[in-house]
Automatic annotation (TrEMBL), chain A:
The keyword Membrane applies. It holds the Pfam family ATP-synt_A. It is a multi-pass membrane protein. It is found in: Cell membrane; Membrane. The gene is atpB. Belongs to the ATPase A chain family. This is ATP synthase subunit a. Key component of the proton channel; it plays a direct role in the translocation of protons across the membrane. Keywords: ATP synthesis, Cell membrane, CF(0), Hydrogen ion transport, Ion transport, Membrane, Signal, Transmembrane, Transmembrane helix, Transport. PANTHER family: ATP SYNTHASE SUBUNIT A. Residues 1-27 form the signal peptide.
Automatic annotation (TrEMBL), chain B:
This is ATP synthase subunit b. It comes from the Bacteria. Belongs to the ATPase B chain family. Residues 44-100 form a coiled coil. F-type ATPases have 2 components, F(1) - the catalytic core - and F(0) - the membrane proton channel. F(1) has five subunits: alpha(3), beta(3), gamma(1), delta(1), epsilon(1). F(0) has three main subunits: a(1), b(2) and c(10-14). The alpha and beta chains form an alternating ring which encloses part of the gamma chain. F(1) is attached to F(0) by a central stalk formed by the gamma and epsilon chains, while a peripheral stalk is formed by the delta and b chains. GO terms for cellular component: endomembrane system; plasma membrane; proton-transporting ATP synthase complex. GO terms for molecular function: proton-transporting ATP synthase activity, rotational mechanism; proton-transporting ATPase activity, rotational mechanism. InterPro entries: ATP_synth_B-like_membr_sf, ATP_synth_b/b'su_bac/chlpt, ATP_synth_F0_bsu_bac, ATP_synthase_B_chain. The chain crosses the membrane at residues 6-25.
């Protein structure tokens, strides 16, 4: 019930916003293509008059991966353009040239070549087109993910240590244990147990890891100026593929039997078997796209709303200033929803994985299934 | 379109990070946490169960106690009743006894009085007889002091005796 209400709210909010701003954004994108190449952050300094604001650049600069943490650009007293960035290590492997590692600052924002590589629109390309290169750089997504995961591991092992010392076993849990414990119990009692059944214990580590992995990266992605890790398809693809493997490697005879020999009349089997086989892949694919699109959309909406201020002030400074409170109010609203979505998407990914695992390990037919499904009125934390 | 093409580097690092985090957390976090949670839940369930059992036992004990109390109360009233009856009986018996004793004493006393009265009467009679004899002796002694009187008397008595 809670989920439905939240969904309704979200749908309403997104519909309203997309209706209100889609026209402006499309218009701006076209306009933006012709404008000057210049990255302006929401905290950034906006030069008035001469430089047109490029919304597309800003938006994609934020949601895409990059080889540095870029905070803002400014024009110094010498007239040169300066960028406030944290450079990150670049790791490249090419069968022809071998391994090369250097800091991304060596590129000087695409102005210089390093080891025969150039930085073109945040992508490293070899100067010689015949050279093949594998980019294993620690990009800002990777670095931020590592930081988030280090914190996750630190938090969780800290909590686990307390449990191992007996705190929370014979006595009441304390401090951060109280925050983590209900979430773990929720995953176990509301996600794993109802969907998977009595074999749930085997899958608990995977489900918990996926949930917290997504959650911590979602939350870190909400920090202003941070990278959009969970809104990157590579990130969600890894989780989706892992879920795909977990689901299908644990599929029992009943599960594969249902796919290869569905209980339908003979003639329909020719249609149903390909559909069923396709459904194996669509499940994982849907997981990948759902998380990716949700997180990406949230980030894009916030940055669009902030960009509106600069788009309007490019038309007239007064309009821009006048629109700022409206824009900030909407952005704050979406931001709060994004916090909610950070949890909801982690929950949905975990829950659907559990549902699919449940289908794969389900023993008997639908009778049992109904029995398992009956008490699962999902409840948001 | 660039948004939808996953980059190799991020794929690789994400997979590596996920697997490392998965194995670390599985061994060092989820296992102890889930174990402890299960243990605690079991302990709570057990203590609830035992509390329920104890409560049932207490209720049983209470009902037993009440039964005992009721029985004791009944017994007490029975004993009291009995005691009262015994008391009444004893009192009555004592009264009867006393009455009997009293009447016996009275009877004995009457008997004694009678006997003493008789004795006294006998005594009086004896004394009287003795006195009469003494008086008669004295009288006779006086009357028969002389020889002639004795003879006259004998004569008189002889005269009275008629030899038929």
């Amino acid at each position: 019930m809670m989920v439905n209400r939240v969904k309704c709210l979200l749908v309403a909010a997104f519909t309203m916003l997309s209706l209100t701003f889609s026209n402006i954004l499309i218009a701006q994108e076209h306009e933006g293509e012709t404008s000057h190449e210049e990255m302006v952050h929401e905290e950034g300094v906006k030069e008035e008059g001469e430089n047109k604001f490029d919304a597309k650049e800003v938006i994609f600069g934020h949601v895409m991966d990059a080889h540095e943490f870029h905070f803002y650009s400014y024009k110094g007293s010498d007239g040169e353009e300066h960028h406030a960035t944290i450079p990150l290590p670049v790791i490249l492997y090419s069968p022809q040239k071998g391994l090369s590692t250097f800091m991304s600052s060596k590129f000087h924002h695409g102005h210089e070549e390093v080891d025969g590589y150039r930085l073109v629109e945040n992508k490293i390309v070899p100067v010689d087109p015949s050279v093949q290169v594998y980019d294993l750089s620690l990009t800002r997504n990777v670095v931020q993910m590592f930081i988030a995961l280090a914190i996750l591991v630190w938090l969780m092992t800290g909590v686990a240590k307390r449990y191992r010392e007996g705190q929370g076993v014979t006595t009441a849990p304390k401090g951060f244990q109280n925050a983590v414990e209900p979430v773990i119990a929720f995953i176990r009692d509301e996600v794993a147990k109802p969907n998977i059944g009595h074999k749930y214990k085997k899958f608990m580590p995977y489900l918990l890891t996926v949930f917290f992995f997504i959650l911590i990266n979602n939350i870190f992605g909400l920090i202003p100026g941070s990278a959009n890790v969970t809104g990157n398809i590579a990130f969600t693809a890894v989780l989706g593929v892992l879920s795909f493997l977990v689901i299908n490697l644990n599929g029992n005879k009943h599960y594969w039997g249902h796919i290869m020999n569905p209980p339908v009349p003979f003639g329909i089997k020719f249609i149903m078997v390909p559909v069923e086989i396709l459904s194996i892949f669509t499940k994982a694919f849907a997981l990948i796209i759902r998380l990716f699109a949700n997180m990406l959309a949230g980030h894009i909406i916030i940055i669009c709303l902030i960009s509106l201020i600069f788009i309007f002030s490019a038309i007239s400074k007064g309009v821009g200033v006048g629109f700022a409170p409206v824009s900030v109010a909407f952005a704050s609203f979406i931001y709060i929803i994004e916090v909610l979505i950070a949890f909801i998407q982690a929950y949905i990914f975990t829950n659907l994985t559990a549902v699919f695992i449940g289908q794969a390990v389900e023993e008997t037919h639908h009778g049992e299934d109904d029995h398992h499904q009956a008490p699962t009125e999902p409840v948001i934390i | 379109m660039e948004l939808l093409t996953p980059s190799l580097g991020l794929l690789f690092w994400t997979l590596l990070a996920f697997l490392i985090v998965f194995f670390i957390l599985r061994k060092f976090a989820w296992k102890p946490i889930l174990g402890s949670l299960g243990e605690r839940e079991k302990a709570i369930a057990d203590s609830l169960e035992s509390a329920k059992r104890v409560r049932a036992e207490m209720a049983q004990l209470k009902s037993e106690n009440e039964e005992l109390m009721a029985k004791a109360r009944e017994e007490r009233s029975a004993m009291l009743k009995e005691a009262r009856e015994t008391k009444d009986r004893i009192i009555n018996e004592a009264k009867e006894q006393a009455k009997i004793e009293a009447s016996k004493v009275v009877a004995e006393a009457q008997q004694a009085i009678h006997a003493q009265k008789m004795a006294a009467i006998t005594e009086v009679k004896n004394q009287l007889g003795k006195l009469v004899v003494e008086v008669s002796e004295k009288v006779l002694r006086k009357e028969l002091a002389t020889q002639e009187a004795q003879e006259a008397h004998i004569k008189g008595m002889v005269g009275e005796v008629k030899l038929n």
